[in-house]
Write the structure tokens for this entry.
Amino acid sequence: MYKKIINYLFYIIIFVLILIMIFTFAKVLHKEINYVPKNSINVSPITGERLEAVYQNAKNPMEVTYINSNEINRFAGMGDADIVYEYMNGETMIYKAIFYNKVPEKKFPITHIDNINLDVLPKFKFLDMVDLSLENRKNATVLFISFSPEFYSNFIYEDGLYYHFKNNVKDRDENTNKPISTSNIIIQWVDESSSYLSKDIDGKGDGLLFCGGKVLNIKWNKESKPIKITDEQGNDLSLLRGKTWWIIVKKNTSVVYK
């Protein structure tokens, strides 16, 4: 009887050890699959995320100019963009979406497509939410930018992302029906005397960085390419891994957040 109990306990211990080995292997495998290595060629220099197949195996990102529209499909395909630049010239609202990791599989409402050099895009270091939580920044979970009575951008922060919305309804990518969201929002203020706005505008000035439900005053400088953003003391800034929505506005544009 005693021998049977010993054998029984032995088999239980072996079974438990096997379960522990399986659990440990699964945990290591999951970590390996989701690990984003630093300074790796498999990591996007634009988002800090693991790369999928780059567009047509090309080295250069694709820049897509979207049609000025208030129609429901104006954001079709934009959910896959790594960076979205938004600004207004005259009465024309302009969206320039940068695709590097992935491009929309369906058609989207565009006016122009260019292949651009990766070197002209801003370079950032990236951090995770846990790192950001250690920094002392003001809370900012709602953002309103009014370009004109007809055109504006609104964002609300939920579950680690800023969602673009209009009339209290989240905007969606018509291609996927997923909400339009971003990890980072940059406000770049330019002089009121600027006659023509562009993502390539030169100079320097002030701005705001929104990420992780918080806001930080920043400086931007594009006296040489690519544009560089820093904190008010001139220190380099890190963005959260993920997409960035970059808004270029004149200083007299209404920007409200809380």
Q: What stands out?
A: Helices lie at 2-34, 129-132.
